[in-house]
Amino acid sequence: MESGYKRFLSYFYTYTENIKGENCGFVRMEIRNEKCKCVVVINQKEKIPPLI
Length: 52
What we know:
Shape: elongated
Number of strands: 3
Distance between the termini: 49 Å
Order of helices and strands: EEE
Mean pLDDT: 86
Structural class: mainly beta
Low-confidence stretches: none
Number of helices: 0
């Protein structure tokens, strides 16, 4: 019997000049009984410059 519960977790990292830095957050997706829940957590220590 399938439990009807699935979870996907992925972490965000900072990058400076294509070098991977510190962990700065995560996203968690949960699917249970045909309902989807998305949680995004971003820990920002300094202002992030806009992408050009």
